[in-house]
Automatic annotation (TrEMBL):
<feature type="binding site">
    <location>
        <position position="343"/>
    </location>
    <ligand>
        <name>phosphoenolpyruvate</name>
    </ligand>
</feature>
<dbReference type="InterPro" id="IPR040442">
    <property type="entry name" value="Pyrv_kinase-like_dom_sf"/>
</dbReference>
<dbReference type="InterPro" id="IPR036618">
    <property type="entry name" value="PtsI_HPr-bd_sf"/>
</dbReference>
<keyword id="KW-0460">Magnesium</keyword>
<feature type="domain" description="PEP-utilising enzyme mobile">
    <location>
        <begin position="166"/>
        <end position="235"/>
    </location>
</feature>
<comment type="function">
    <text>General (non sugar-specific) component of the phosphoenolpyruvate-dependent sugar phosphotransferase system (sugar PTS). This major carbohydrate active-transport system catalyzes the phosphorylation of incoming sugar substrates concomitantly with their translocation across the cell membrane. Enzyme I transfers the phosphoryl group from phosphoenolpyruvate (PEP) to the phosphoryl carrier protein (HPr).</text>
</comment>
<dbReference type="InterPro" id="IPR000121">
    <property type="entry name" value="PEP_util_C"/>
</dbReference>
<dbReference type="InterPro" id="IPR018274">
    <property type="entry name" value="PEP_util_AS"/>
</dbReference>
<feature type="active site" description="Tele-phosphohistidine intermediate">
    <location>
        <position position="199"/>
    </location>
</feature>
<dbReference type="InterPro" id="IPR024692">
    <property type="entry name" value="PTS_EI"/>
</dbReference>
<keyword id="KW-0813">Transport</keyword>
<keyword id="KW-0479">Metal-binding</keyword>
<feature type="binding site">
    <location>
        <position position="478"/>
    </location>
    <ligand>
        <name>phosphoenolpyruvate</name>
    </ligand>
</feature>
<feature type="domain" description="Phosphotransferase system enzyme I N-terminal">
    <location>
        <begin position="6"/>
        <end position="129"/>
    </location>
</feature>
<feature type="binding site">
    <location>
        <position position="468"/>
    </location>
    <ligand>
        <name>Mg(2+)</name>
    </ligand>
</feature>
<dbReference type="InterPro" id="IPR008279">
    <property type="entry name" value="PEP-util_enz_mobile_dom"/>
</dbReference>
<dbReference type="Pfam" id="PF02896">
    <property type="entry name" value="PEP-utilizers_C"/>
</dbReference>
């Protein structure tokens, strides 16, 4: 039966394909399609893991001391009975043979189905048996992981046809899990949770793949293998579409491809408005190789290199100075002399370090907690290591340091003290760097915006991080699905705050850019031009869309109409003022 689900569109485009259901449990295990012809070997791995766990339970049962509680023996007996039931392995083996899911993925898929069935049982005793099944499955998965480690298998293996017509469906996907998918040909993403500016959404846009988030209960209502239409423009997910609907959306896909080809013609045209105002478009990147595409699309520099993505999803220790230096230098080299703003690590909130990093799980999960520069200043050796790596990269081009989440004068002072210390350490080693490297600050806390003269007096350039500025000004956690609908870049407070920052910076002759998601939204391009913004920084996938709007804009006319927008506090009055501005 065809039905539609609605969510928040975060990455435009239309995807058509079969659902690949990634459960919360599945995200914690390996998941890949086994190579054709190796299905039986994979099924045997699962059976071997069952046998291994059965032997473990037998040994535990035999090794119980005489005075052990009877409940312990009963507990082991129940688990033994569950393992002995051939039904537990039947469906996973079928999934391996028919859909080529790897063993751990197939087992967690069956586990989810069983847990859903038990959730509907009213009898409390029978309901409790769900925990026994989960514990048995976890033991089997542990045994499978031991096999994988012995064979040195990676967590995610590509296959020749993986994701050709596949759409990931998950409860939620952390940024580091998104990075694991980045090199594979999935055509779309659907999640139960998330908002427009969650880091998961940002990474989805970076992959230029259609995505809809905040689709409540999608992972429960969509089954593995269901055909889906994902409309990243409208935020709609159609499940089990009929042939007529599929034909309509395939036609829309073709039209979108034609529009994309037209956009490519703008790559080499000058970026200026109708009244000859020059605008500079910078790229936001997560990984060094993103710089290649940024240059191809005409970016005049990297406005934001999110360096924390080098630290995420790592099983080894955190990257040392040499490793970081090589990565930063690679970006600098790829940009061929254009400026590269390297933001120091913004760990915390929904961006955790890899296994080798410092544990921030207790203090860094809140957007108001120990994150960004606050965290770096509590880990001075890690911070100094990163600063030295950036400084060394500055010897090869225009590498610049950008500091996130500053608010206090003492944070500014301590940051510059450590930058000077890093310089002295390099001088003592005799290693080259640019002694006059530019240092910029991100304005993303209302306190920073309200004391902007302090920042203007210390820094070479400013960058407005609208994602955090909006969430802190409106007291909204942008990763919290329950309040995501209140996140509003057009709130009068936000517009007045941003207009003030841009105006003060321009008057002081300090370069100022917008590097949040607002900069990459073509619907907001004319609004930002009206504020006087001339430096935009966005994901490279949005560069040409924004450029198209700039080429059609007249800054003089926009500035003349903008004061009325700033004075409009009621929604109806603001809508009319914006309509007049954008007419």
């Amino acid at each position: 039966m065809t039905f539609a689900l609605h969510g928040i569109p975060v990455s435009k485009g239309i995807a058509i394909g079969q659902a690949v259901l990634i459960s919360r449990a599945a995200l914690e295990v390996s998941h890949y399609l086994v190579e054709p012809g190796k299905e039986e070997a994979e099924a045997q791995k699962l059976l071997d893991a069952f046998n291994q766990v059965r032997l473990e339970l037998d040994q535990l049962r035999l090794g119980l001391p005489k005075d052990a509680p009877q409940e312990m023996a009963a507990f082991l007996d129940v688990h033994g009975m569950i393992l002995a039931d051939p039904a537990l392995a039947e469906k996973p083996i079928k999934l391996i043979r028919t859909q080529r899911l790897n063993a751990a993925w197939a087992l967690t898929t069956e586990l989810n189905d069983l847990l859903e069935q038990f959730a509907e049982i009213e009898d409390p005793y029978l309901k409790e048996r769900a925990n026994d099944i989960r514990q048995v499955a976890e033991r089997v998965i542990k045994a499978l992981n031991a096999q994988k480690d012995a064979l040195n298998e990676p967590d995610f293996l590509p296959s020749s046809d993986v994701g050709v017509e596949s759409i990931i469906v998950a409860h939620d996907i952390a940024p580091h899990d998104m990075l694991r998918f980045k090199e594979h040909a999935f055509t779309g993403f659907v999640t139960d949770l998330g908002g427009k500016t969650s880091h998961t959404a940002i990474v989805a846009r970076s992959m230029e793949i259609p995505a809809v988030v905040g689709v409540r209960h999608a992972s429960e209502m969509i089954r593995h293998g269901d055909w889906l239409i994902l409309d990243g423009e409208q935020g709609i997910v159609v499940v089990a579409p009929d042939e007529q609907l599929l034909a309509e959306y395939r036609k829309l896909q073709t039209q979108a491809l034609k529009e994309a080809r037209k956009l490519q013609q703008l790559k080499h045209s000058k970026t200026e408005t109708l009244d000859r105002v020059d605008i500079e478009l910078f790229a936001n990147i997560e990984l060094p190789e993103d710089a290649i595409q940024a240059v191809k699309l005409g970016a005049v520099g990297v406005g934001l290199f999110r360096s924390e993505f080098l630290f995420m999803d790592r099983k080894q220790a955190m990257p040392d100075e040499e490793q970081q230096y090589q990565e930063y230098r690679r970006v600098v080299d790829l940009m061929h002399g254009l400026p590269v703003n390297i933001r120091t690590i913004d760990v915390g909130a929904d961006k955790a370090l890899g296994a080798g990093g410092t544990d921030v799980s207790q203090t860094g999960t809140s957007p108001l907690g120990l994150r960004a520069i606050r965290w770096s200043l509590t880990e001075p050796e890690i911070f100094l290591t990163q600063l030295r790596a950036i400084l060394r990269a500055s010897a090869h081009g225009q590498a610049r340091i950008m500091i996130p989440m500053l608010a206090h004068a003492k944070e500014i002072d301590e940051t510059f003290r450590l930058i000077e210390k890093a310089k002295q350490q390099l001088l003592q080693r005799g290693q080259s760097f640019n002694p006059n490297i530019q240092v910029g600050a991100m304005i993303e806390i209302p306190a920073a915006a309200l004391v902007l003269p302090l920042f203007i007096s210390h820094f070479d350039f400013l960058s407005i991080g609208t994602n955090d500025l909006i969430q802190y000004t409106l007291a909204i956690d942008r990763a919290d699905h329950a309040v995501a609908h209140l996140y509003d870049p057009l709130h009068p407070a936000i517009l007045n705050l941003m207009a003030s920052i841009i105006d003060q910076a321009k008057r002081a002759n300090i370069p100022v850019a917008v590097c949040g998601e607002m900069a990459g939204d073509p619907m907001l391009t004319k609004l930002l031009l009206a504020m006087g913004l001339t430096d935009f920084s966005m994901h490279f996938s949005q560069l040409l869309l924004v450029k198209r709007e700039i080429l059609k804009a007249n800054v003089g006319m926009l500035k003349a109409r903008f004061p009325r927008v700033l004075k409009a506090y009621e929604p109806e009055a603001q809508a009319k003022a914006l309509e007049r501005l954008l007419a």
